Amino acid sequence: MEKKLAILFVDDEKIVLDSLLDQFMMAFGERFHYEFAESVEEAWEVIDYLIEDGYEMVLVISDWLMPGIKGDTFLIDLHKRYPQTIKFLLTGQAEPQAVKNAMDNANLYAYIQKPWNQEALIATVNEALKEYIQ
């Protein structure tokens, strides 16, 4: 039986989520199940649902500046529960200390600034996925 692989995008801006979905669908098509969350609280609900449904959380791409919990804190908590999940911070504004915090404590795979370069993002994701699958 083939594993069910999921990718989660977490950002409080719907336009960013839509853009990421479009880019990932063009690059990867139906190889993955894609989900969104507009807050960290919603992200945990989605993750719990996916795990219960037998999905493997392959990749989480999170914004940093969101209402409530910041992206670095979320990714650190995610790493504690799912250390194998690839974690990206995709943000337009993050304090340098927050990025360092995520790198040191969440095994952050990549920090990418908005607006992002689509080709660079997809190339980095491809690299990360190859490592994950091996």
Which strands sit side by side, in order, in the main sheet? Answer: 2-1-3-4-5
Number of strands: 5
Oligomer: single chain
Residues in helices, as a percent range = 40-55%
Topology as H/E string? Answer: EHEHEHEHEH
The general outline is globular
Task: Specify the number of helices.
Answer: 5
What's the name of the CATH homologous superfamily? Response regulator
Q: In total, how many domains does the architecture comprise?
A: 1
CATH architecture: 3-Layer(aba) Sandwich
> What average pLDDT do the residues reach?
96
Residue windows where pLDDT falls under 50 for at least 5 positions: none
CATH class, please?
Alpha Beta
CATH topology: Rossmann fold
Radius of gyration: 14 Å
Walk me through this protein's architecture.
The chain is an alpha/beta fold. It has a single domain, classed as Rossmann fold (3-Layer(aba) Sandwich), CATH 3.40.50.2300. The longest helix has 16 residues. The model has no long low-confidence stretch (mean pLDDT 96).
